[in-house]
Amino acid sequence: MTYFNGLNFNVPTATILLIVFACLVANQAHSQGRSPWVWFFLGLLTGPMVVVIALNQMRRVKPMTLCPQCRESVTVVARICPHCQHNFTAAAAEESRRMEAYQAASDRGWWAQASRPGSDG
């Protein structure tokens, strides 16, 4: 297994995908009345460049989420919204407390009482 820009890169799989890509390009060229062999080799040459550019762009993209207060896009790892100064760590702690309270209340709900022996549910 080889690593390229920190990503796993399997050479046999990449080679097969490159050939399949070149075949698709050649088939499209043939259907449009162009030379399939010329376009097959062009597909072989340009395929790695497209993959390198795509991998490089994938590394630059940061996962985003919406701020619950102002609905602006912020990175997932942000602790404070740069637009409205909303504190995500405090909000996450409050959400956790709310979920625990909901879970405790649902444990005491009618379905929990109905399963007890001697209840009329």
Structural summary, described in words:
Helices cover 59% and strands 10% of the residues. It is built from 4 helices and 4 strands. The model has no long low-confidence stretch (mean pLDDT 76). The protein has helices at 11-31, 36-60, 88-107, 110-114, and strands spanning 2-4, 7-9, 64-66, 73-75. It folds into 2 domains: 2-60, no CATH class; 64-114, no CATH class. α1 packs across α2.
Which key phrases capture this entry?
single chain, 121 residues, mainly alpha, 2 domains, 4 helices, elongated
Order the strands across the largest sheet as they lie in space: 1-2
Distance between the termini: 60 Å
What's the pLDDT, averaged over the residues?
76
Oligomer: single chain
Largest sheet: 2 strands, antiparallel
In total, the number of strands is 4
Radius of gyration over all CA atoms, rounded: 27 Å
Structural topology:
Blueprint: E1 2-4, E2 7-9, H1 11-31, H2 36-60, E3 64-66, E4 73-75, H3 88-107, H4 110-114
Antiparallel strand pairs: 1-2, 3-4
Summarize this structure briefly.
This protein is mostly helical and 121 residues long.
